[in-house]
Every structure is written in structure tokens, then in C-alpha cells.
Amino acid sequence: MSFRVCAILFSVMCVSACGSSTSPSSTPEAAPAGSTSITIVSGASGLTGTAYNPNPITVSVGTTVSWLNSDSITHTSAANNGLFTSPNVAPNSRFNFTFTTAGTFPYHCTIHPNMVGTITVQ
Ligand SMILES: [Cu+2]
After folding, report:
1. Beta partners for residue 103, in sequence order
2. The CATH number of the domain where 108 resides is what?
3. What distance in angstroms lies between residue 117's CA and the mean position of ligand 1's atoms?
4. 104: CA distance to ligand 1 center in Å?
5. Which residue of 12, 27, 52, 98 is surrounded by the most CB atoms within 10 Å?
6. Which domain holds residue 59?
7. Helix (H) / strand (E) containing 3
């Protein structure tokens, strides 16, 4: 592998690992180790129970759920009971939340409240 390719690869890795900007990235942000991913699908703003995939989902206590915005516009993930509220999540960015208590947690997108999902933690 040439130095030039190495330098390019390093730049890409740094953008995904070091980036804290909310501006859209051309590559999906990496999921945290051991997390369970939920994808915000393309065209999610016009969807209801299929905006988040998979949905519903069941995870174990202690699991980090990582929402990846695979759509072309900004979304959020917010628990109906206020347990978690993401900031605005730009395309290709993630919001991560670790569930430490069991329960059933309906959530939605604060920008498009028609987008709904449910996470059961057991
Ligand atoms: Cu949305």
C-alpha cells in the first residue's frame, strides 16, 4: 500500500472517529463497540412505525442502542417519557444511549412526530 493511500485512509478514519460536527458526512459514523444499531431509514419523515428499523426491538439491560441516520435530512430520537432526547442527528451521524433500567420505551422524532418506535429493555 502506498503512502498516499495510507494518508487518505487515515484522513477518512479521523473524520469518522474524531468528528463532533453535526454537518452531514459522506460516510456513516461507526457504531460503538457492542452496541445495537437502529437505522433511521431513507424517507423516514413520511413514515410512522417503519421510520426506525428494526422496530420494535428488545435489548438487554446495559445495552447501548445506536441510532444511525441513513436519511438525507436531520432527525432525532426522543423517549416519550423523557428518558433520552437526542440532539439533531445529521445524515450519516449517530445518537447513542445506554439503557440501564428495564422497561418499555416508546420514542419518536421531535422534528417529525409521526416517526415512532418502541424499545423494550429486559
Ligand atoms: Cu425526523
Report:
1. 121
2. 2.60.40.420
3. 12
4. 21
5. 52
6. 3-121
7. helix 3-18
Q: Yes or no: say if 53 and 37 are a contact pair by the CB < 8 Å rule.
A: no
Instruction: With H, G, I as helix, E, B as strand and everything else as coil, classify residue 74.
Output: coil
Residue 27 Cα to ligand 1 midpoint, Å, equals: 20
- Centroid of ligand 1 to alpha carbon of 76 (angstroms): 6
Left if phi > 0, otherwise alpha if psi is -120 to 50, otherwise beta: which for 106?
A: beta
- DSSP secondary structure, 13-69, as one string: HHHHHH----S--SSPPPPPTT-EEEEE-TTGGG-STTSEES-SEEE-TTPEEEEEE
Count of domains observed in the chain: 1
pTM exceeds cut of 0.90: no
Ligand 1 is an ion; its neighbours by CB within 5 Å are: 75, 109, 111-112, 115
Encode pLDDT of 15-51 as tens digits.
444 444 456 678 999 999 999 999 999 999 999 999 9
8 A C-beta contact, residue 39 and residue 52: yes
Cα separation, 116 vs 39, in Å, equals 13
Q: Is 82 left (phi over 0), alpha (psi -120 to 50) or beta?
A: left
